[in-house]
Amino acid sequence: MFKKVLIAEDHEHTNISVRKTLEDLGIAQREFRSYCDEALKLVKIAINQGEPFDLMITDLSFEEDKNIQRINGGKELIMAAKALQPDLKVIVFSLENNINVVDELFDYLSIDAYVRKARYDAEDLKRAVEAVSNNKKYRSADLIRKRSTEISYDFKAFDIEIITLLCNGTPQKNIPAYLQKKNIKPSGLSSVEKRLNSIKTSLNIFNNEQLVAYCKDKKII
User: Fold this and answer.
1) If we measure between CA atoms, which residue out of 59, 55, 57 comes closest to residue 46?
2) Cβ neighbours for 172, distance < 8 A, ≥ 6 positions apart
3) Which residues are bridge partners to 116 per DSSP?
4) Per-run averaged pLDDT (10 residues), the chain, 221 residues
5) The pTM is what?
């Protein structure tokens, strides 16, 4: 288990919850900072003293106030901290539930765990700390379920055709004419609308622009 942990979090009630979680895990050395600049400074000091942190838990968003900061968010803090200490373990504890944002944190910032602030997040955070201490990756169960839904969705040729048309700037109301010209069925506007709505509902997407962006990002179109 970790011995020395840094927590970067600007909400007091969250700090109390994290403090209790770490106490329950028997982690004695806990340092809390409300500003990213102060957290990074502490990372530097710990390294210089030969007693670096084992783990950093950070939020992504920090509210701005009269204390102007050079580092304004969790992503920048993670990058700066890992530049100083590449082997630093990192858990992100945030409200963000966008799968693409979370994936980028794992893929490009090499975080070790992502815990979403939600109901029962104290137990979730405890499981994350335990997993990371055993060199395992971890993400909240609701994010895993959401990702599973996305991956399991089976795009048909018809779906790709109408989404590609949207991507190319064709208004939704004009798609039936194109489908009829190409002898693609079904070609009615109601069929197009129902299909797009079904896809968006399955992927938890709210409009056509988001759907196009999602399909481009996943290289579906």
Assistant:
1) 55
2) 166, 189, 192, 193, 196, 208
3) 94
4) 89 74 84 92 96 94 79 92 96 84 87 86 88 90 64 78 92 91 86 90 84 83 83
5) 0.65
* Tokens 């968003």, residue located: 61
Q: How many angstroms separate the Cα of 181 from the Cα of each of 47, 188, 218?
A: 67, 12, 29
Is 114:143 a contact under the CB 8 Å cutoff? yes
Q: At what angle do helices 99-108 and 141-152 cross, to 10 degrees?
A: 100
Domain boundaries, the chain: 4-148, 153-217
Q: At CA 157, angle to CA 155 and CA 158, rounded to 5?
A: 95
Options 3.40.50.2300, 3.50.50.60, 3.30.420.40, 3.40.1790.10; CATH for 4-148 is 3.40.50.2300
Q: Which run of H or E residues covers position 6?
A: strand 4-8
Tokens found for residue 103? 């994936």
